[in-house]
Each structure stands twice: as C-alpha cells, then as structure tokens.
TrEMBL record:
The keyword Membrane applies. The lineage of its organism: Bacteria, Bacillati, Bacillota, Clostridia, Eubacteriales. It comes from Clostridium estertheticum subsp. estertheticum. The keyword Transmembrane helix applies. This is Uncharacterized protein. Keywords: Membrane, Transmembrane, Transmembrane helix.
C-alpha cells in the first residue's frame, strides 16, 4: 500500500492542476503578507499590533483573506486530487491498477494520498505567511486592538478558542489554527473522493456539491459545532470543538467505508 501511496503522490505533484491550486493558494498568502507590510510601513510601536496577530490567521486587516480561503476551501481541497478516481474511471486507467492489486487497497491508498497531499498543500502556504510576517514585522507593537488592558485580556481565559494556549504561547497558537485548517481541508478532500465512489458524476458536479454541502453546514449546524468558528478563533470551548471534529472524521470514515464496499461489490 505504501508503494501505491507514493505513486499517487508522485502523480498528483506532477499534475498541472495541483501546481495551479498550490501556487494560487501560495499567491493569496503572499498577497496577504504584502498587504500587511504596506499597511505597517513607517508605523511606530503605538500603531503596530503584535506580529503574531498580523498574519493571515489572526490579522484584523487581512481577515477577509482568511474568510475567502475558508469559503473556497472545499473547492481547493477537492479540486487538487479528489476527482482522481473520476478521471481514472472515465479513461479506463484504473483497470490497469485493479488488474494487479486488491480494490480495497487501491481505494484506501488513494484516500491516504489525498489526505496527505491536501494537508500539506494548505499547511505550507499558511505557514509561510505566518513566518514571513514574524520575520518582517518588528516585535515592538503595543496596539493589541481590543481596547482593553493586557491584564484583562489575559484574565479572560474564555474569550476565544484555546486562549490559555494563546496567552502562554502565542506563536504556537497560530500554528495550531493552521494545523486545524489543514486537517479539516484534508478531511473535506477525502469526503469528496468518497462521494465520487458513491455516485457517478462529473468533476465539476463534485466540486459544486462539495462547495455547497460544506458551506451550507455553516447555516445548518449550531455555531459551537462549526469548524470555521474555531479556525477564526471565535468564542468556543475545547469539548465542542472535539465533538465537531469527531463528527467530520466519522462522516469521512463512514462515507469511505460505504464507498469502498460499493466499489468492491461492482
């Protein structure tokens, strides 16, 4: 199975579509960084925020960029490689693989490779943005932007998601949000692949269904169970986040199990 995963990863990285998605996301993150630099140019310490709160994850001035990424996350995640089975099925490529290996191993390997490639495709651009911001913005700012004293900010440990970690390790907090975003995007990508196993559809239909389905959950689910709520560091507690994330993992596992079962019986 490891050989299959390596082969899938190699095929994906060589694909022009992957390069377009990765470079587009990287370009958005670089644009966000340049916007922060432009806005901060010639600012003094009274006008600067803390560097960890000026990156793409927590920056007020570039929050719209993060919202855009989250809105298009289903398209980015599923567009990278979730439609690979549709392509291989329509072009009779999978026949050559399935003639030599077990169907269950073939589809399981695809799920792992999709998860890995999407996870790092999201992780790297977001991490680069935070790193560039940390290196470029001097850590002399005192404008925390809340209109509250630092004492009150640190005393209110339930103000936003995992604030206790933010208070003690602010830069680690940013990367936790990036890891959550990457993990969630990878789950969405695998779910998209699973749906391509369950239903006969075109690539564009898969993207449309996943875009609508994932974003509609923001209106259907209570706010405390929305992953986007925690990625944007809104008020929330760890137990509700674990429930929300577990729910998406369960959907991923169930849809994958049913999809593999359907294909192995055909």
């Amino acid at each position: 199975m490891i050989t299959l995963i390596k082969l899938d990863l190699k095929n994906c990285i060589k694909n022009e579509k992957f390069k377009i998605y990765f470079l587009s996301l990287l370009g958005i993150c670089i644009f966000s960084f340049l916007a922060v630099c432009t806005d901060s140019f010639m600012s003094n310490s009274l006008q600067l925020n803390f560097p960890n709160k000026m990156g793409i994850m927590l920056g007020n001035n570039v929050h719209s960029v993060l919202q855009f990424i989250l809105l298009t996350l289903p398209l980015i995640a599923c567009g990278i490689y979730s439609d690979s089975f549709i392509y291989e099925r329509d072009n009779n490529i999978c026949v050559y693989y399935l003639a030599r290996i077990n169907k269950r191993k073939y589809f399981t390997a695809k799920m792992f490779s999709i998860f890995i490639i999407v996870f790092f495709t999201i992780l790297l651009p977001l991490s680069i943005n935070e790193l560039l911001t940390l290196l470029a913005i001097p850590n002399v700012g005192v404008d925390h932007g809340y209109g509250l004293t630092v004492y009150l900010l640190k005393a209110n440990a339930s103000e936003f998601f995992l604030q206790s970690i933010y208070n003690g390790h602010p830069y680690l907090y940013n990367y936790l949000l990036i890891l959550i975003t990457s993990f969630y995007g990878a789950l969405v990508a695998v779910i998209g692949f699973n749906i391509s196993l369950l239903f006969q559809m075109k690539k564009i239909n898969l993207l449309i269904y996943m875009f609508l389905g994932v974003n509609l959950t923001s209106f259907v689910l209570p706010q405390k169970f929305q992953i986007y709520n925690y990625i944007q560091s809104n008020p929330g507690n760890l137990s509700d986040f674990i429930i929300a994330l577990t729910g998406w993992i369960v959907v991923c596992l169930i849809s994958g199990t049913i999809g593999i079962w359907k294909e192995t019986r055909s």
